[in-house]
Amino acid sequence: MKKLVITCAILGLMAALGCNGPSVNEEEQGFSLDDINKYYLAAPKGVETRWISSENKKGEKGKGGMTNKGAKGDAFSMIGPGDTLVIFDQEGPGIITKMWVANSFGWSEENRRKVSIHMYWDGEQKPAVSVPFTDFFGIGLGLMRPFENAFFSMPEGRSFNCAVPMPFRKSARVEIVNESSKFLMFYYKINMVKVPKLDDDAMYFHAFWDRDTATTKGVDYTILPRVEGRGRYLGTNIGVIGNEKYRGTWFGEGEVKIYLDGDDPFPTLVGTGTEDYIGTGWGQGEFANKIQGSTVSNKAHDVYTFYRFHTYDPVYFHKDCKVTIQQIGNSTKERIIEMNERGAGITPVWSYVEPKGYNAAQRYLDMEDPPAVTDEEFPGGVSTNFYRSDDVSATAYFYLGKPSSSLPGLPPLEIRTKHIKEKVYDKI
């Protein structure tokens, strides 16, 4: 009873002095995606919604759709050959919440890898995102297919949507670069919220793209080169064009490896196979789930595109991170001998020999004197893995505690487009 009396007295004194508790300045509170997802809450003071498009390029209040006397006047923008179109240029702080685009180069396959998207945060001169346009929006190899996942979607296979949250503190700029010889019609809408302040630990969105037209046997393909800083690896979409020397054999035995915070030479995180990483098994057909999928699986021409995002299974790093995937395929002794006779130069690395029970895994690289594939004692008719050399490209998505990184820039047009028409677009 005594404690209750004292508490009431303190509250009464605070009321008499005009105090209702600790003073809170709403403009000093951080704002995050969690606040947006509380659909029933009113927006805090200073939080405002903006749409940026050709109808309101700066997203200014009360200035949308002003041309053509308020009728549809600037639904799209044109990008000339060799031009750069700035589709977003805003002061911060804010959060980009969604991007939608439809454009004429979606109809023209030969132009898809010739257009790229670049994003700059907080006045940095180096972009945090620098990726071929169609590859950025969730499918590799410049292909278009209907799909939807947690971050990207392509309704009816002809428009581009991105729902990756992209916070910025001082400024943000998004550019589209046209390296084709055509004029391009470009529709877009970028949704954002202006906020008084971001949470202190809000990180910047980054995306990295690269391609190796002929991976080196025995060397893992690098999805994300080692990036330094504090961050979170969000995921990847990968495109594979199989080497004709291995036509008709399975490409995806390679394991994904994630090196965290100084890992060397071995990683902390490692998978069990390519299709395992995207949630399926025993090969890879076409499917699209929230965090994993295979949007293209063309066995006739060995063309594959697939993705994996780490949402409820986060991959955090505090100092650095690197992500790779092994280049390993699978076939039988008999097929390997046939391929070698055609010049494939295959060396087996592993076989599954079921009758050996607990010793079913035959690890040839661990053997002092492993049998050659042509030897009589080499197991026939069984699953045998081997190093491959294929054409692999990937977009890696991640967050980093700084607005730019030391990663290499976008490869030149020659690398982006080499053999794409004859090996992909003319085939599927």
Describe the main β-sheet briefly: 11 strands, mixed
Strand content: 35-45%
CATH architectural designation of the largest domain: Sandwich
At the fold tier of CATH, the topology name of the largest domain is Jelly Rolls
Walkthrough of the structure:
The chain has helices at 2-16, 33-36, 133-136, 274-277, 333-341, 413-417, 420-425; strands at residues 48-53, 77-79, 84-91, 94-103, 115-121, 129-132, 152-153, 160-162, 166-168, 171-178, 184-194, 204-212, 221-228, 231-241, 256-260, 269-270, 287-288, 292-298, 303-309, 315-317, 320-325, 328-331, 348-352, 361-363, 383-387, 391-400. The model is unreliable at 1-27 (pLDDT under 50). A hairpin with an 8-residue loop joins strand 15 (256-260) and strand 16 (269-270). The chain has 2 domains: 44-62 and 71-327 and 388-425, Sandwich (Jelly Rolls); 333-387, no CATH class. The protein contains 7 helices and 26 strands. 11% of the residues lie in helices and 36% in strands. The relative contact order is 0.16. It is mainly beta and 428 residues long. The strands form 4 sheets. Strands 3, 5, 6, 10, 12, 14, 17, 18, 19, 20 and 26 form an 11-stranded mixed sheet that branches. Strands 1, 2, 4, 7, 8, 9 and 11 form a 7-stranded antiparallel sheet that branches. The radius of gyration is 26 Å and the shape is globular.
